[in-house]
Amino acid sequence: MNEIKNITDQASSELFRSYNDAIVIFYKELCPHCKNMEKALMKFGAKSPETELYCVDSEVKGDLMAELGFERVPTLIFIRNGEVANIYSGLMNPRELKALHASL
Amino acid sequence: MSNEYDVIILGGGVAGMTAAVYTARANLDVLLLDENACGGLVNWTKEVENMPSYASIGGMELMERMQKQVESLGVTVEEAVCIDSMDLSGAVKRIEADDETYTAKAVIVATGRKPVPLPVAGDCEQVHYCAICDGAPYIGKRVLIVGGGNSGFDEAIALLDLGVSELTLVEKMDRFFAAQSTQDALAARENASTRHSTEVLSLNGNGKLESVTLRNMETGEESELQCDGVFVFMGQQPGTDAFAKQLRLDEHGYIITDDVMATSLPGVFAAGDVRPKKYRQITTAMADGTIAALEAERFIHTTR
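^ Those are the sequences you sent over. The predicted structure of the assembly is below.
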């Protein structure tokens, strides 16, 4: 199982430069949509072990959200070769997530 | 891994989880499928205070406890499942999901309800269905709440507590339906106002919401209200599109059952908010799930 690693206080967009193929989910603890998106991400991750999965608590890292230019959760940041390749706010099922990831 | 089960439960809310507990304890092989995370609408409830056992418990925490119990009983739980098709008509029920074929002798449908979307053209990024999720960006800003039931009033108070500067709540019907104590609590807030007999005609703005146009349904008068975000709580509708061609539904799309949760197809039962009922509570969903599970067990053991 490809687990979702928690990025905490040292998170910044600079950190993304070290990621080759990653998805970062910004969530809130009590957000039901985030819970749904997290399950979809875990399901995607189980079949895509090459993609690293990370999560960021948006209430802890609101400054990083502002830096990246979004304010809603859940939001997924797709990283390819150290660069932000796409930012997606809202829900997707694992199939849609796989298709979007493959299109980048 | 075998995909043959005694019972497949569709939906991991209260009704589905209760059915899972009972069927598992009847020593049946049970699979529970949910298109999202388990928990259903209770996940959207900040505090649950009307279910015996806890004076107060967070909705998500309650459902996580239920899921833990269900999994400890040996039920296979699959979340974030994409269901492609199903055939519930034969003695063997078939469900195609995530490139797998699952079969069972009985199926319990507990897919619940989903929020009714705002029926206004031009949906924009500033329309929301969850104050907990999306409220924070509206601190110091103006919001409109659509829906005068308990959810609308509860979420309005939550947004005011969060720090929105000005809040207007509108309801299409000629009165509000929330508990009087909740209505009183909102009426006591200086920066909140309410209007019944009022509908949203349009969302206005250039890329970002700037105002909404409202219409008084009694006088026909239209007015423009400056606002930065809209939160919609107009009730729910059943998630039964996938069953429309197989099961008898009522005029509102709910699955018709008898008093033991049997549907129009043998071996297919429905429980919880997905069936027509007067009181939609955690406790009544539990009752439905219990009955559906016991009947599914009886069906399996008496049908050879």
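Chain B touches chain A through 20 residues (CB under 8 Å). Chain B has six helices and 19 strands.

Shout if you want it in another format.
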